[in-house]
Amino acid sequence: MPRLQRAAHEGHSQFERKNRSCVQKGHGQSVDPAQADPGTQQNDIEENMSMSFASPQRAVRSERHRTSPVLTRRLLEKANIEALVAIDSPDLKLLSEADRMASLRETMSVRPPGDVWVFGYGSLIWNSAIASAERRVARVDGWHRSFCLSITALRATVDRPGLMLALDRGGACHGAAYRLAEEDVQEELRLLWQREMVCGAYVPRWVELKDEEGDAFGWAIAFTIDSDHPHYVGDIDEPTTVFRLATAAGGLGSSADYLFRTCESLHVNGIYDSKVERLTSLVMASREVERLAAPA
Prior knowledge:
single chain; 296 residues; alpha+beta; Hypothetical upf0131 protein ytfp; five-stranded mixed beta sheet; two-stranded antiparallel ribbon; globular
């Protein structure tokens, strides 16, 4: 069995056990943001990186004693995600159920031959919340993982905006591919659209999946960024990225928790993403700076 696929099979059950612990104990709450410009703390952050950059997964695990909620299948089935969004960002324009279903029908109207797969590159790796017949590590070409989606809800608020991952054009991305049983396709995709197509910042599209040897084995739905959407921030700089990820939090937890869980799940699945590694280390260091500066 290829190395990445073997890592997925061996590591997924291990991560599920870890993730249950994460659900119970969490990775981290947000810290009140500093009033200064996000770039002003960069020197302190760089100096504090040495501890976490060498092994960010150990730093991630060290924060599990804090509480953070998790998006569940039950929440999606009850359509409670809109209520959570409304609390964090009351004026955020949401897609209607009719708009979401129209988007789903449009996507399925150009379905390629073969099984339906779903490609996850962020939280879908560690919390898919969908029923699948098969799961394996895969690569998609022409797209890369990027914190290019500005958010004001769920893991952020209007006053404390955060960032979420999307697939942006260029490069390649390793992630988790889920094959759906044919009889489950409609229901599982309905839940997936309920989760991902909240405000319409993503463009669902079919991407070709490749294995470790570069051989294609199927087509998957992936949620790519809409570069024309007002929440697209493809040109955001690193200090602002770190500041937002370190300080934003909403009804589903913190942006830092989202980053940390993604980083750890990539490790478990044998995937290395240098940008995620660096951001994890910088955010950990930023939070440590805030902790040390906080009054006793």
